[in-house]
Amino acid sequence: MSTTQETLVKSFREYVNKLVTYSQAIAVLSWDLRTKAPRKGTEARSNVIGMLSGEHFKLATSPQMEEYLLALEEPAVFSTLDPILAKTVQECRKEFDRSKKLPADRYQEYVVLTATSGSVWEEARPKNDFAAFRPYLEKIVAFQQEFIGYWGYNGHKYNALLDMYEPGMTVGQLDPMFATLRAKTVDLVAAIAASPNQPDTSFLTKHYEPSEQEKFNRFIVEQIGYDFAAGRLDVSAHPFCTTFAPTDVRITTRFIPNDLRTALFGSIHETGHAIYEQNISMDLFGTPLCDGTSMGIHESQSRYWENMVGRSLPFWNHFYGDLTKQFPTQLEGVNVERFYRAVNQVTPSLIRIEADEVTYNLHIMIRYELEKGLIEGSLAVEDLPHLWNEKMQEYLGVTPDSDANGCMQDVHWSEGLFGYFPTYSLGNVYAAQITNTLKKEISNYDELIASGQFAPIRSWLKEKIHRHGKMKSPNELLQDITGELTNANYLVDYLESKYKTIYQL
């Protein structure tokens, strides 16, 4: 590499690191806005986030960035770059081409809108006030449609949004996959509902003091592998995980006094995300590659730890004694098998994040179909409440008692995360597919979980998935790990095997 080229590479690395630093600052402010900031500070904080995001946007789409990319993409130069730098150039090019098409002032206005909208949603939801939230959501949808017009798209307009979170995935792939999952799920739910072997869950809704829940949650997530020296657990209206660096990955949860499950499994879920982020190679730090490769792969890790580990019988054979010590009165007379069946109860519910793993995908399909309608313009924001209720009745046989428990229950739309929801179901699909291979390669898998020895499992996941960050695409990871591309049959087999046993079908 010539001296001139070395200077170019050094300058580019510094420029990219500056972009990453801006992103970290924005992430810290956003985390604070959702966890610690006073309500009256919302507008001022949102404006700061908007200003910094605008500066980041300008840097990412500047003439200087374009000069860097053109110089580094020259075949004679690109062929000499190390793999991380070459992938960084490709990632920056993709972001440059996408962002350059957006007017900078419109993008900054959008960022301020979504920062403000999130706080409006937090206030409006408890009041069941869709009317207060509606104008913000209408503006967000209009921005999404406007941005798609700038970006362009292949096939369905929704593909432009879906590709942001799950590169390579399309409506054409999702529609038949979801149709199959829906048919299989409806049949399984019907069989479960008809079973006389329904679990008793009454003990799960006794009073569980939030402070005591927090103690146990901290214990359990640390046992699984969350590193508190590189993170923290806080409370927020909607649980989330946010990352500033592999050495600073924070999670939140919410405690409900009369339901043990919400915070417990929500915390394990967010821990799955955090373990992924905490184990990305530090070689990628300071680049846009220091992140999960897609939201679907990310979700596969959270759903794996929450459901395939956290709701398994071997897991509770090990930890149930610890739980009964924390809540001896509430769990008196309840053995581990009864507890296991209770936390795997299948029943149609109103709230997605509280849904069981069998009906969960139906919740996602409802959001997916409504999002497609909003983006293509076949339905309006004002129609969401009644359309949501109709689909809930059609898919799950329940009707929300309020918009707070209906179309306003998720934070995602207030933050402009259209195209995101399908990745939750893809996460379930990926998790089952990856776990099938994991169990083949770690022969004493169940014994490890039953003895609380998670290090070998974490090491396998780190080697196969976590350390790579965005160096590999979702399809490359799946192909390398399982030898095939996305296959929903593993999820169907997992659900049918587990729940036919629990419900003695």
TrEMBL record:
Cofactor detail note: Binds 1 zinc ion per subunit.
Domain of life of the native organism: Bacteria
Cofactor(s) required for function per UniProt: Zn(2+)
InterPro entries xref list: Peptidase_M32_Taq
Keyword hit for ATP-binding: no
E.C. designation(s): 3.4.17.19
Enzyme class at the top of the EC tree: hydrolase
One Pfam match: Peptidase_M32
GO molecular function: metallocarboxypeptidase activity; zinc ion binding
Biological process per Gene Ontology, one example term: proteolysis
Task of the protein: Broad specificity carboxypetidase that releases amino acids sequentially from the C-terminus, including neutral, aromatic, polar and basic residues.
Entry protein name: Metal-dependent carboxypeptidase
The organism's taxonomic lineage, starting at the top: Bacteria, Bacillati, Bacillota, Bacilli, Bacillales
